[in-house]
Design goal:
about 270 residues, mainly alpha, 13 helices, globular
């Protein structure tokens, strides 16, 4: 995984787990709506276990239900989750197309919750950074930050993304300031791991190998405790890069081997 793509992890899980909570409450729910919401929760759980195929299937079924009921915000939320899966599975162009369709909905007169728009802008920023389109990433990230001007649950994730943007722009000092801020804002182990991974990348860019190793190992431990195999693999790849650049070939080979084994096992678990 390329270094800049690691920052997309910051916003990804947030999209998947907050979708249902961002919808407008409906006092009386039909069996169809209750079923769609159950599918969303099951999809999020499948994704957390690394089963992107099962997650995508359930999210898509829920999307059909929401679309059939003209529940635009609920449908948009699911589309953002599907975009995350598209990105994970190596379809960044398709992922960005999904996100942009969500972002274009207000121009059609549709009303989206601020949380949905925030998540869409954050996902767009991460995808543009993967494509090294820093201008578009900056615009999307600025829009997300404006929507999160008051304290919100995405604050740490957005700070991590902003750290990644500054790192990609070559501004190591501001990048580190933002990553430290993200670590202080972290309210969940996932946010903390993302911030630590960001700090490790920044230290690596500055050839500060002991600090990069320390932060990378802490991120790995957190992601292992969370059972987040995609993040564990990203951490292992990052540590392999750190040891390679530090000149420790033995440790680099060790972590590269762990990454390859974890990737193979993750695929076998879900029949890929």
């Amino acid at each position: 995984m390329k270094s800049v793509t690691l920052f997309s992890l910051a916003i990804g899980t947030l999209i998947l787990v907050t979708g249902c909570g961002s919808k407008q409450p409906i006092e009386v729910k039909s069996p169809a709506l209750e079923s769609a919401e159950r599918l969303e929760h099951r999809a999020a759980a499948s994704y957390a276990k690394g089963d992107s195929v099962g997650a995508a299937k359930d999210f898509q079924t829920a999307a059909y239900v929401y679309e059939s009921l003209a529940l635009v915000d609920a449908l948009a939320s699911v589309q953002l989750s599907l975009a995350r899966i598209d990105s994970d599975d190596g379809r960044p162009v398709g992922a960005l197309a999904r996100v942009n369709r969500v972002l274009n909905l207000p121009s059609t007169g549709a009303t989206l919750a601020p949380q949905t728009l925030l998540l869409a802008q954050g996902r767009a920023a991460a995808l543009y950074m993967q494509q090294k389109n820093l201008t578009a990433a900056d615009d999307a990230l600025a829009a997300a930050e404006a929507l999160c001007a008051s304290p919100c649950e995405a604050l740490s994730a957005l700070s991590t993304l902003r750290a990644g943007w500054h790192l990609a722009s070559g501004d190591w000092i501001t990048a580190k300031t933002k990553a430290v801020l993200a670590l202080g804002q972290a309210n969940t182990p996932s946010d903390k791991a993302n911030a630590l991974r960001s700090l490790a990348q920044i230290s690596l860019a500055q050839s500060l190998f002991p600090q990069a190793t320390q932060d990378g190992l802490q991120a790995l431990q957190l992601d292992q405790s969370l059972g987040a195999s995609d993040r564990v693999i990203a951490d292992l790849d990052l540590l392999a890069s750190i040891y390679t650049q530090a000149g420790d070939a033995r440790k680099a080979v060790e972590y590269l081997g762990l990454s390859r084994a974890a990737t193979t096992a993750r695929a076998q678990l879900h029949g890929k």
